[in-house]
Amino acid sequence: MAANHRSLANDELQLVEEVTSNIVSRQPAVVTRQPGDFRAGFVATLPLWLGAAPFGAIYAVSALAAGLDWAQTLAMSLFVFAGASQFTAVGLFAAGASPFTIVLTTLIINARHALLAASVAPFVRDARPSTKALLAFQLTDESYAIAMRRWLDGSGSLAYQFGANVSMYVIWQFSTIAGILLGNLIPNPAAYGLDLIFPLTFIGLLVPLLREWVSVTVALLAAVLTIGGALLLPGSLYLLLAGIVASGVGAFLAGRWKNDHQAAAPR
Q1: CA nearest 73: which of 167, 187, 189, 177?
Q2: The pLDDT of residue 158
Q3: What pLDDT is attached to residue 24?
Q4: Once rounded to an integer, what is the mean pLDDT over residues 116-127?
């Protein structure tokens, strides 16, 4: 389980870099829904199923081994739907931690989703509150990474984002069920190199977004802070701290860059 936690932390490192690069110095484009957007978003995340499915199954095996029954194991995937937090909660449950400790720890781990939400919010400001709530519940690292490129180039839509969200939700539920049914027959994904899929995907999605020096600076700062935090701080709080600090620095640099350009523009 420790190996799974490290793999998920590596994935989150790439996500922190991407989120903090997107959350500053970008203005939302006018977005209109195109026919087939939901299907396009769903299909776009299919390659990530290969990396998500083994971890969903491993989670189920770990949950059952920790003492949860099959209904509780599946309910956590249905209603929590957060891979790293589910692994952590199961480990704490097995160790006999109190409910308060489990809730607080998983809350801290999932606090990075506040950064994801802040990055997506400008694009969905006109959506109904119920729509925003459903989008927030289903938003994952992977669906965010896939959909954000569309948001930034002006071709994103709620339908596309929901398609990406639902795709990851579906595979997580099916892989959880597979883990419940197959049990210890599920191999460790790290043994086959499948744990590299997410980090490599996030790197591939991040690099094309580094179009100006502010984004490059923010991404590098987030990487340095995240690696330093992983080496020096316990738990996963360093992910949130790195994202907040890098985003703040990025917002400051973006403001100065904008002011300098306005001052240099001919009048």
Answers
A1: 177
A2: 93
A3: 47
A4: 88
Note the Cα 261 to chain centre separation in Å.
33
Output the six-digit token pair for 119.
């990055």
Q: How many residues in total does the chain contain?
A: 267
Q: What does the block give as tokens for 192?
A: 């086959």
- Please list, in sequence order, all residues whose beta carbon lies within 8 angstroms of the beta carbon of residue 138, skipping any fewer than 6 positions away: 81, 162, 165, 166, 168, 169
Q: Which of 143, 157, 171 is nearest to 55 (CA)?
A: 171
| pLDDT at residue 123 greater than cutoff 80 | yes
Of 206, 233, 244, 215, which Cα lies nearest the Cα of 14? 206
* Neighbour count for residue 249 (Cβ, 10 Å): 18
Rounded to whole angstroms, what are the CA distances from 53 to 48, 99, 189, 191?
9, 28, 9, 14
The CA distance from 256 to 233, in Å, is: 32
Residues 14-43 have pLDDT tens digits of 555 555 555 444 445 445 556 789 999 999
pLDDT in tens, 178-195: 999 987 676 666 666 655
- CA dist 257 → 18, 218, 249, 251, 261 (Å): 20, 13, 12, 10, 6
- For 35, 155, 179, the CA distances from 39, given in Å and listed in that order, are 9, 14, 27
Q: Are 179 and 61 in contact (CB under 8 A)?
A: yes
